[in-house]
């Protein structure tokens, strides 16, 4: 019977220490190999907490499933900021290009509720509202309206 370990790790910087080592040790898998595999799979998320599920079968084979960080964390990474504005609505956290929004939508597409890229991009944009970001120097609501009008069809 397979057993699973779910944890949050620092992207690209997992170690054999807690929480991984103590959780994986009793399962009999080579912890350094598991850590190396996790670091390889999460290297694109350096500086962020990443959800990881390690499944170990009866023959001590392991499989690693990497989730994606929250959309807001990906937006902050693209903006190169650690926190959003102190007063939401008053300060702008930064400006992103539409291409950066599409990139985040592609990263998150498996965990979003949207069925197509157009709505996935709009969902990512919605996560940027509390951060008060702009896209191509335009407010998010205007960009969402332009998407509905077909302006960004070549990206979607």
Looking at the structure, the CATH topology of the largest domain is Arc Repressor Mutant, subunit A
**Overall number of structural domains:** 2
Largest sheet: 3 strands, antiparallel
Major β-sheet strand ordering: 1-2-3
Rg over CA atoms, rounded to whole Å, is 19 Å
CATH class placement of the largest domain: Mainly Alpha
CATH superfamily of the largest domain: Ribosomal protein L11/L12, C-terminal domain
**Mean pLDDT value:** 91
Q: What is the element string, with H for helices and E for strands?
A: EHHEEHEHHEEH
The first-to-last residue Cα distance is: 42 Å
Tell me which CATH architecture of the largest domain applies here: Orthogonal Bundle
Number of separate strands = 6
The portion of residues assigned to helices is: 25-40%
Number of contiguous helices: 6
Shape: elongated
Fold topology:
Elements: E1 3-10, H1 20-24, H2 31-41, E2 49-56, E3 62-66, H3 71-79, E4 95-96, H4 98-108, H5 117-127, E5 134-135, E6 138-139, H6 140-148
Parallel strand pairs: 4-5
Antiparallel strand pairs: 1-2, 2-3, 5-6
In short:
It contains six helices and six strands, in the order βααββαβααββα. The strands form two sheets. Strands 1-2-3 form a three-stranded antiparallel β-sheet. Strands 4-5-6 form a three-stranded mixed β-sheet.
Could you characterize what this model shows?
The protein is an alpha+beta fold and 156 residues long. The chain has two domains: 3-66, Ribosomal protein L11, N-terminal domain (2-Layer Sandwich); 71-155, Ribosomal protein L11/L12, C-terminal domain (Arc Repressor Mutant, subunit A). Helices cover 36% and strands 17% of the residues. It has six helices and six strands, in the order E-H-H-E-E-H-E-H-H-E-E-H. The protein has helices spanning 20-24, 31-41, 71-79, 98-108, 117-127, 140-148, and strands at residues 3-10, 49-56, 62-66, 95-96, 134-135, 138-139. The chain has a three-stranded antiparallel beta sheet. The protein has a three-stranded mixed beta sheet with strand order 4-5-6. The chain is elongated. The mean pLDDT is 91.
